[in-house]
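tool_call: predict_structure(chain=1)
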Amino acid sequence: MSADLRVVGFTEAHVPLRLAVQVADLEAQAWPGSTPGHDPALAPRTLLLVDGEGTVAAALSLLRKEIRLGGRTYRAAGLSSVVTRTAVRGQGLGGRLVAAARAELAADPAVDLALFSCDRPLAAFYEAAGFVPLPGTVLVGGTPEDPLATDAPGFDKAVMAAFFTGAPARDRAAFTGVRVPLHPGSIDRLW
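tool_result:
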């Protein structure tokens, strides 16, 4: 892998085939048996850390939807399918890509917050990229008829966020210690 790495982004439907194949391979290694791709209704955007030879070092997806909470509607984005090539793990490349994703979301006036869950041992990784944990918060994914919550038996999830609104402290308080009706659907049951 060459040293000249850059972040590139595409709508999921427009990821060049050579890169899409690599992303699918990385995801299959990380999550055997998973189906690649995301629900188009969530406006998936793929961010990649790519070297000068076109090798994908790390990948993630950004998903979007509106969330109603506390009488307000928030425009939320979530990180999904964050993966780093096994051969280059431990070099800070995944963190670099996650920080770039946070910066992109912070600069987007159509995003009020980033909100997602991760395995609890990965919370510090996301904190290093600028996200904060929301203690006691539970994301309720799936659909209202078939929910999947981050506090379901067998899950050990942390909920992470970044707030880009005019009153981030107020909005962080609104999302802390509550059950958030994320409901991204039956394809991306949680992000």
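agent: The chain has a mean pLDDT of 96. Proceeding to next step.
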